[in-house]
Write a structure and sequence with these properties.
This protein is mostly helical. Helices cover 83% and strands 0% of the residues. It has helices at 3-13, 18-22, 26-59, 67-78, 82-117.
Length: 118
């Protein structure tokens, strides 16, 4: 299998930057991995914070334990102030993933061409 395909698959299926590490582009690989982890941490921390608020309201008896009440509370949580940030973070994460995928494929193609010319 060509380096370009392996690098693209690593970046697409593992984490952005994994393909760069495979291609020995360590600096850009670690930058992409760090950015992806930071964005994922932000997304997961907001989701956990919202979930814990809902659990706390259920435990305190503010919300009854039925599907409609819980779904109403989830919908209310989705309309909070952090939603604007999440609307920015998700596209940034997807863009980062695409950049990692395309760039690792591009670098891999260049390395494939160089190795084939030898």
């Amino acid at each position: 299998m060509k380096k370009s395909i392996k690098a693209a698959l690593l970046s697409a299926l593992v984490i952005p930057g994994a393909g760069h590490l495979y291609l020995n582009r360590r600096i850009i690989g670690f930058v992409l991995i760090s950015a992806a982890i930071a964005l994922l941490y932000f997304i997961v921390s907001i989701a956990m914070e919202r979930a814990l608020l809902i659990v706390e309201k259920i435990q305190n008896g503010e919300v009854s334990l039925d599907n409609q009440s819980i779904m109403a509370l989830v919908s209310q949580q989705s309309a909070s102030a952090d939603t604007g940030l999440l609307n920015f973070v998700w596209p940034a994460f997807i863009l980062l993933w695409l950049i990692g995928l395309v760039d690792s494929y591009r670098i891999g193609c260049a390395q494939d061409t160089t190795s084939a010319a030898r």
